[in-house]
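Dear U.,

For the methods section draft, I wanted the exact inputs and outputs in one place so we can describe them consistently. I've listed the two proteins in the order they'll appear in the manuscript figures. Please don't edit the token lines directly; just add comments below if something needs changing.

First protein:
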Amino acid sequence: MPELNVALGERSYPIFIGSNILQNADYFAPYINSSQALIVTNQTIDPIFGEKLTNTLGFVESLDKVVLPDGEKYKNLDTLNLIFDALLEKAHNRKTTLIALGGGVIGDMAGFAAASYQRGVNFIQVPTTLLSQVDSSVGGKTGVNHRLGKNMIGAFYQPKCVVIDTDVLSTLPDKELSAGLAEVIKYGLIADSEFFVWLEQNMSALLSRDTDALSYAIERSCQIKADVVAADEKEGGVRAILNLGHTFGHAIEADQGYGNWLHGEAVGAGMVMACDLSYRMGWIEKDVVDRARALIAAANLPVTPPEDMTTETFMKYMSIDKKVLDKKLRLVLLNACGSAVVTSDFSHDALIETLQC
């Protein structure tokens, strides 16, 4: 069974990837060092996996659970307070452990709650969507959305471990599977051209949920992200390349209403836009844009933004992106398939042309 490591010194932690490991207490017990723990999940995941995880954690003397509403639109401060309510009502102390059982929304909110409660308690990521398994559960980014911007309130806070059970993907809706594949494709575009070719050759296997294909895609994606995070934990430099397509994608999500476009769908369209701008800057060949668009389409993802989004709307939301520094918009662009750069050195006219396409 693959076991990866996010190398961050004292904050290093393992990523376990395997079949049916959700029901194996050995992957949890070493990382829960008190008699208290709180499972944080949502109304969709709890009926499917809540009891299984509760049984697995039977060794915890005081195990509680909070079930949140499901959806990106609930990723806000009001919902976050439900976690704090549960912790305080059950008198959890600073040695408690939060276990995030769910997709990226649950992982981000449980992690932010862990970072904040009594100024920091332990937490474990148990991602149940492909997107969260390959992206949001690894790296310690936690937070909530604001009506004016996605993930604008949060903290860098690392989990004690990440437990990825590939079997949980059998219940994942097709649309959610495709959303996760957007982040998988991203890794090929920014860091591994050979992996990108592998994805071109194996997309049908991934969509049909071939176990071996999914396991390899998850492992390779997590390894790339672990390496990038180890080099730049708090996004002071190279880590920002993980946001390929996200500035465009976050604008789409904010404009359309969180949850109306899945995060992966918005990122899929956003990556095509980032590739298009890279080509207009003369940094990549047209062939790279065409291959990226074809692979994203093959994953059943949008390759164009919503028809009702204007250039002005894009610029409004992009101007408050987290990568804006000194009032300068920075974007993640490609200089080759498998190589990305974070830059503000792009043509404004070329950006407008991309937004108008």
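Second protein (the one for the lower panel):
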Amino acid sequence: MLLLDLTHTSHTRAQTGIQQVARALHVALPEPAGITWDLHAGQWRPLDPWEHANLAAREAGGRRGAYWPWSARLHGAWRKITGATPVLPPADALVVPELFSPATAAAFPALFRAVRGPKVALFHDAIALRLPEHSPARTVARFPAYLQELLAFDGIAAVSADSRDTLLDYWRWIGVKNPPPVIAIPLGLAPAPAAPEQPPAGLPVVLCVGTIEGRKNHLALLAAAASLWQEGLRFELHLVGLAQAETGRAALTRIRTLQAEGHPLRYDGPVDQTALEAAYRRCSFTVYPSLMEGFGLPVLESLARGRPCICSGRGALGETTRNGGCLALDNVDAAALTAALRRLLTTPAETAQLAAAARARRFRTWTDYAADLTGWLQTLRRT
């Protein structure tokens, strides 16, 4: 039996990258037992039905943070008062796919003692340290301790070679002599419905899927779109994604300003899967202006639907773009994005070539990812 720590994801319906990974693993891993650190009961326990319902949710979620209804808080307090101790299933391994909180980290020693096999954490990125000016202040402050806490695991599964190298470089920099093994296992994708090869006739639509936050670089994208509209180029920019209140505020303000000026700019916020698939079907291509990623799921999700993507060709995104279907940029500032958007909007033959390259690619599934992860688990020793 494999324990899967879903402390955060089981308490939110948000569909950001880490939540997508956690939910996918809950389905793809062989017989995973989802567990949570119940801060109100002060104990680890299997998931309750309402937490399983959160995991199964496919609708758009508007809250990134963990939410505990009052009934769950009271139930946890009652468990604590009565001393009721839930029994975790016998565990051969533990997988922690989330960016965990200090409270959860403090509770890991008790959980580790209950696991007779290897304990593995997924590592997504260190963007909070690499781009602190574009990250929430609390995340930046938290990150050095988090990277130290990862040393307690028997192995770390990084989501890309870039993330693996970043973690190992950081540990070397702080003087860690014998870190746990770190492997790069690229993520998988859910099956993608076939999108029509040709988008609908009419005004071209450029789609951008991703959370509205500082490092996603929407301000540069909006500046590029405004410049092209001023030139007289006709297209709609369609934005989809949950907004991060702290670092996405400036982009949200700019979106409202451009809309008030009458530009063809649509922002839907977070949407469910049905609406997202409809957005892919109606777009000509996508743009993902992010400055830095640990992996970059939205790029592959676009390519899997036969839609080319404009994005950075550096770091983890460079790993994603190298097999075709992308217009990869050395720089994702406003000038570079303006040129790239103009290029694909005015040369449909090149857009069609990139779309054909995207359709020719073969993509890893979550089943592939789970098989690679569990195979690696079997090679690890418990510390």
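Candidate sentences for the figure legend, describing the second protein: Residues 205-360 form a domain with the Rossmann fold fold (CATH 3.40.50.2000). Residues 155 and 181 are 5 Å apart (CA to CA).

Thanks,
Y.
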